[in-house]
Amino acid sequence: MRAIRPLILFGIGGILYYFIEIIWRGYSHWTMFLLGGICFLLVGLINEIFELSLVKQMTISTVIITIAEFICGCIVNLQLGWNIWDYSELPMNILGQICLPYSILWFFLSLIAIILDDYLRNWLFGEEKPKYKLFKRG
Fold first, then answer.
1. How many secondary structure helices (H) and strands (E) does the chain include?
2. Measured distance CA(113)–CA(118) in Å, rounded
3. Which pLDDT band holds residue 137 (cuts at 50, 70, 90)?
4. Is 114 helix (H, G, I), strand (E, B) or coil?
5. DSSP code per residue over 28-59
6. pTM for this entry
């Protein structure tokens, strides 16, 4: 069962990411399912390895997601020419693949991913019930 956990979390994260895209843009691409699954797994690992406040987890998650989107965008958009997205018209973009406004949005959306990952681990796998501190002292 332990080996299946990452696959289950990957699938849930991929589906959620895919549907966020559909809600936000009206469409998505199968690569966004893969990217979402990877991001959800990585975000979920942060508090499995470290004991951090929610704000620190959200900050690290934002960096992880933004880097993952940049790498994915460079591959699927710039290298393969699939033109899945183009942020060239948005402020503070890098090569049209990532931009500051969406990174800020990922900061807030990452809170949902962090909490969802923790509760899924508790409900589905019997892991410890999550406890949170917005800011951690000491």
1. 4, 2
2. 9
3. low
4. helix
5. --HHHHHHHHHHHHHHHHHHHH----HHHHHH
6. 0.93
